[in-house]
Automatic annotation (TrEMBL):
GO terms for cellular component: cytoplasm. Signal peptide: none annotated. Keywords: Leucine-rich repeat, Repeat. It comes from Cyprinus carpio (Common carp). This is Leucine-rich repeat protein SHOC-2. It comes from the Eukaryota. Gene3D superfamilies: Ribonuclease Inhibitor. Pfam families: LRR_6, LRR_8. The keyword Isomerase does not apply.
Length: 153
């Protein structure tokens, strides 16, 4: 594990020194945060797949403002993901694969182009505490389904 953490640090330093799109990873005892800024979806897919071994830990992923149109495949496989921020991307459809991540507590898709929500599936997520869908052109019935989590519209 220590070697893997050292490798992450080297990759982050290399990214910053070469003035490429910003990548940050904060590692604490049980939480790993991955943040990508101003990257394209190919870079995002690469970075997320690089951190697949993080899937055994609790993970917070911040992919806001990356012009994503779909969820990177690897994110849905992170079975201990607790928080994901997909704000200010180009999502037209809510990434339903997230509803399969039972540990997910917080989802933000604020500022996208989503019109429908899979409320039945979202209501089956046992750990979900909050869903931020502000600034999306949701249909009036999109959020009318009874739910157990905080829904920010």
């Amino acid at each position: 594990m220590a070697q893997a953490v050292a490798n992450v640090a080297r990759r982050i330093n290399s990214t910053v020194e070469e003035q490429r799109d910003s990548l940050g990873a904060e590692i604490t005892s049980s939480l790993i945060c991955i943040k990508l800024i101003k990257s394209d979806s190919r870079y995002t897919d690469y970075v997320i797949s690089t951190y697949q071994w993080f899937s055994r830990l609790a993970v917070e992923v911040d992919l806001q403002g990356n012009v994503l149109t779909t969820l990177p495949e690897a994110v849905a496989n992170m079975q201990h993901l607790i928080s994901i921020d997909l704000s200010r991307n180009k999502l037209r459809v809510f990434p339903e694969r997230l509803t399969d991540v039972s540990s997910l507590q917080h989802i933000s898709v604020e500022g996208n182009q989503i019109t429908e929500l899979p409320m039945e599936k979202l209501c089956l997520m046992p750990a979900l505490k909050s869903l931020d869908v502000r600034s999306n052109p949701l249909t009036p019935e999109a959020a009318s389904f009874p739910h157990h989590f905080t829904l920010l519209t």
